[in-house]
Amino acid sequence: MAIAGHEVEVFEALHLPGGVLMYGIPQFRLPKEIVAHEVEQLKKLGVKIHLNYLIGKLESVDQLMREGFDAVFIGSGAGLPMFLGIPGENSVGVFSANEFLTRFNLMKAYDFPNHATTPIHAKHIITVGGGNVAMDSSRTALRIGAKSTLVYRRAREQMPARKEEVHHAEQEGVNLQLLTNPKRVIADENGKVVALECVKMELGEPDESGRRSVTEIPGSEFQIPCDAIVVSIGNRPNPLIPMTCKSLSTTRKGTLEVDPETLQTSMAGVFAGGDVVSGAATVISAMGQAKKAAANINKYLRGEPLKDEAALSAL
User: Fold this and answer.
1) What one-character-per-residue DSSP string does 209-266 give?
2) What Å distances lie between residue 265 and 26, 273, 276, CA to CA?
3) Measured between alpha carbons, how far is 34 from 285 in angstroms, rounded to an integer?
4) For the segment 274-302, what is each residue's pLDDT rounded down to a tens digit?
5) What span, in angstroms and rounded, lies between the C-alpha atoms of 244 and 314?
6) Is the pTM value of this prediction over 0.85?
7) DSSP characters over the chain
8) What domains lie within the chain, and their CATH numbers?
9) CB 139 within 8 A of CB 26
10) pLDDT band at residue 309 using 50, 70 and 90 as cut-offs
11) pLDDT tens sequence across 122-163
12) Which tops the pLDDT comparison, 50 or 309?
């Protein structure tokens, strides 16, 4: 947008720009120096970045429009973590993958006391989940000197993580406990995690989608001693923005509803893309949608039709 000649302002909720590239992806996968360089390039283009500025709390989207912004792009992601819903999950030492990775990536908890974030002292960290973020969490656990175990309720073939990510995790020393489902978190008298109780699972027949179901094996319960648990089973978009701007329509899944061709929301001049539209996906997918939205915002600001009128008239 800046290259196209528009004045651009970015509102970042955290104290450093870069979003999930800074706080969600570990240093060993994406060096933060690369992200910092990209941010500096944006600043050189004249992009103004506001930090510690949470849209939906300090201001709503419609307030931004009333203040004189001609268009708004919402790229707030899917940062609301999902949890297991099992007994003991509120024990001290249970973290969402978001919090765990943010502590180590953005707040540099591994460099305590040079950085003030309270470090996570743990000798054995269990990560629950089978996606790419779970792999990042389990590999990060190794880098703070902890034993790392990954618990996943299905078989290796059903893991949503890329095969190479699983390979790297195992190669580095992550212990995979497959066909294993968490049942409850066990804590001591101080409420601190001491173990995760699990049950073994077995594969059943494929369901309508073709994915094999899993069922518990009766009497197979067992405990894995640990002092920290990272839950990495997915995220949902934070409802803060649509809750504070009733003109924005959402889907049943809580994602923002957009025109799939233009990525414009139910509000004229307000566009959205990435996980806040698709649900939790990849950075590459989000960047692709952002570029598509930028092209349409440019058309909108220039007063050009967002859709091909000739193609529409042929329908």
Assistant:
1) TSPEEEEE-TT--EEEE-SEEEE-S-EE--THHHHT-TTS-B-TTSPBP--TTT-B-S
2) 32, 10, 11
3) 19
4) 999 999 888 999 999 999 999 999 999 99
5) 39
6) yes
7) -TTTT---EEE-SSSSSSTHHHHTS-TTTS-HHHHHHHHHHHHHTT-EEE-S--BTTTB-HHHHHHTT-S-EEE-----EE-----TTTTSBTEEEHHHHHHHHHTS-GGGTTTS-SPP---SEEEEE--SHHHHHHHHHHHHTT-EEEEE-SS-GGG--S-HHHHHHHHHHTPEEE-SEEEEEEEE-TTSBEEEEEEEEEEEEEE-TTSPEEEEE-TT--EEEE-SEEEE-S-EE--THHHHT-TTS-B-TTSPBP--TTT-B-SSTTEEE-THHHH-S--HHHHHHHHHHHHHHHHHHHTT--SS-HHHHHT-
8) 9-79+236-308 (3.50.50.60), 83-233 (3.50.50.60)
9) yes
10) low
11) 999 999 999 999 999 999 999 989 999 999 999 999 999 999
12) 50
Q: How sure is the predictor about 314, in pLDDT bands with cuts at 50, 70 and 90?
A: very low
**Is the link from the previous residue into 113 a cis peptide, with omega within 30 of 0?**
yes
In this prediction, residue 315 carries a pLDDT of 36
Amino acid at 117: T
